[in-house]
Design a protein that fits this description.
Blueprint lengths: L1 H12 L6 H5 L3 H13 L10 E6 L5 E9 L11 E8 L8 H15 L4 E7 L3 H9 L3 E11 L2 E11 L3
Parallel strand pairs: 3-4
Antiparallel strand pairs: 1-2, 2-3, 4-6, 5-6
């Protein structure tokens, strides 16, 4: 079920940013295999989050998730900050406050694991996500990167926040 949420969220959020061929080719079963590995701890440590948070909809099925862990290093100087690895909510559940709930829980999980500062990456063309994180107090810090996908690249912007009170 998490794979279905993951794929649907990407297909809705990244249409026009990633190629249609890539998004239409996302296979829920392949993503389900990744999720099984992630949740069982059999993925490589660099792909295994410390915390996975899940929010359920009215019928008890997952409609969103967040993953947190240590900052994945961009360089050896990245330090010991935490990272909000992902937040995805099924498009049919957008606008219900579930993303905000996951963000708050993710920030708390990062603080609870000893992090005092956190980062996250936002697709540069995803204006909705920029507004979401900025309303929650996150700020772009000027660091950018390009993520390679089959046949295209995605431009990303890093956001930072202080954790705790």
């Amino acid at each position: 079920m998490l794979a279905r949420v993951h794929v649907a969220a990407w297909q809705a959020a990244y249409r026009g940013v990633m190629t249609d061929a890539f998004l239409d080719g996302l296979d829920v079963e392949q993503w389900a295999d990744r999720w099984r590995q992630t949740l069982s701890g059999t993925r490589a440590p660099s792909h295994t989050p410390e915390v996975v948070l899940v929010v359920e909809g009215d019928v008890g099925l997952p409609v969103g998730f967040a993953m947190t862990g240590p900052e994945r290093p961009l360089s050896p100087q990245s330090g010991s900050r935490g990272e909000l690895w992902a937040i995805n909510v099924a498009p049919e559940a957008w606008g219900r406050g579930l993303g905000r709930l996951l963000l708050t829980a993710g920030e708390r999980a990062l603080a609870d694991t000893g992090h005092r500062e956190a980062v996250l990456w936002v697709v540069a063309a995803n204006a909705r996500a920029h507004r979401f994180y900025e309303r929650a107090g996150w700020q772009a810090d000027g660091v950018e990167k390009r993520e390679a996908f089959p046949g295209f690249e995605v431009h990303e912007v890093r956001y930072v926040t202080r954790l705790g009170s």
